[in-house]
Amino acid sequence: MKTVEEIKAAIEAAVPGAEVEVVPNPGPAAQHSLRLAPDKAVAVAAFLRDDPELAFDFLSNVTGVDWPDKEIAEKVKVTRQVTKTVDGPDGQKVGQQVEETVEETRKRNEPGWLEAVYHLYSVAKKHGPLVLRMRTVNRADQVALPSFTPIWRAAEFQEREIFDLYGIVFTGHPDLRRILMWDGFKDHPMRKDYVEPDDFEYEPTAHDEVLKRAQERRSREQATGNREQVPSAG
Amino acid sequence: MPVDQSLKIELGKQGIFVTTIQELYNWGRRSSVWPMQFGLACCAIEMIATTMARYDMARFGAEVFRPSPRQADLMIVSGTVTKKMAPQVVRLYNQMAEPRYVIAMGACAISGGPFKQGYNVLKGIDRYIPVDVHIPGCPPRPEALLQAFITLQKKIDVQHLTGEDRPRFLDADAQGEFPVPEQGAHDLEPTSNQGVWPVQIKTGTQGTRDPGN
């Protein structure tokens, strides 16, 4: 199989306007992935499947990743004009502009995104895997990605699962609905900010996080006398 | 009232069989408990193995596994009950005709098992339906399922036909239909059936071995 850079060059030659970027994988397997921009992704996928040399005809796995928002606190040196009161020549207080360098801690909120990762193999040429990634714009409202189901049928159920568990909406999918949870379910359980419903009433051998939740529940019940469940925040 | 055993044996030697209606009735019922074809996950494989040649369950009376809940006496809940499947399990239980029994086979059916913290796992089927025998194990061996079956048979043997402690199917006022949970926005609603699963929250001092309860 060609290396990832060669495949990137082939894609850029065949599909003009496609934005492809190599995402290096620092682990020992060195399976670098190609990050595709969503707008030409279907054309790129069709090229990867139909090209006689690459011939990626087997989509073996589609998975989702949740990159949560990050809050970065950084120390910044800021130069500011500060007015200081100084004794003037006439014995009065005079304001004087002085430059002062102050170190400030600024908090930045870097938005996260959702990602769909595809693993492609070639049964005809016996090479692979090629890893593709596609990122959404953010995690809240712009969560659409093009679906690869028209290209590889294997993506159908797996993209439904990613829609169910992560919330990525695949445009062009023939039947996009929940597959593991029921249709009326409102959360996306595999996201990092999913809160489980509070049904830890009885825990005979609690440990670790379950122990913490069971103790919270017990202390809440003893404090308020209320055995009802707390509606989940998820 | 039970018959004196030595008198029974003596008369038996003479060719006279003495019993009570209760014994006869219960013997007939416990020797032909027909389970329903109901397997959910890995424990179902062990249940199938129990019905096959090596650990044959048919010799204990579970002759055929009925496909229809109307014709079955026993539901062996074998495997993880997901929250998506839980309303259907309760519906099937409601459709079984009395007398009916439930065996919760395996850790998942008892309490959620190794997948207890999963987002789709119901933490035990005894939250919604009454369970007669619980079998611990992951999965329990076929011999354990046979032991549970024999335990159920012993339980049926001592059921009275009249009186305060008669079973549900002989009591006209007993609740026969168990409410089916709805699939809500975040969880099943209600999360448990308080009539079936009244969890006792112990207050006060606890031993150090049981801190989570």
Short key terms for the protein model shown above:
A: 234 residues, alpha/beta, Beta Polymerase, domain 2, 3 domains, five-stranded mixed β-sheet, two-stranded antiparallel ribbon, 9 strands, B: 213 residues, Rossmann fold, three-stranded parallel β-sheet
What is the average per-residue confidence, as pLDDT of chain A, rounded to a whole number? 85
CATH architecture level-2 label of the domain at 34-156 in chain B: 3-Layer(aba) Sandwich
Helical run tally of chain B: 6
Largest sheet of chain A: 5 strands, mixed
Largest sheet composition of chain B? 3 strands, parallel
Would you spell out the secondary-structure blueprint of this structure?
The complex is a heterodimer of chains A (234) and B (213).
Chain A: H1 4-14, E1 20-23, E2 33-36, H2 41-50, E3 58-67, E4 70-87, E5 93-110, E6 113-122, E7 127-135, E8 144-146, H3 155-165, E9 169-171, H4 208-224
Parallel strand pairs in A: 2-7, 8-9
Antiparallel strand pairs in A: 1-2, 3-6, 4-5, 6-7
Chain B: H1 5-13, H2 21-30, H3 42-51, E1 74-78, H4 86-95, E2 101-105, H5 107-111, E3 133-135, H6 142-157, E4 182-183, E5 188-189
Parallel strand pairs in B: 1-2, 2-3
Antiparallel strand pairs in B: 4-5
Helix pairs in contact in B: 2-6, 3-6
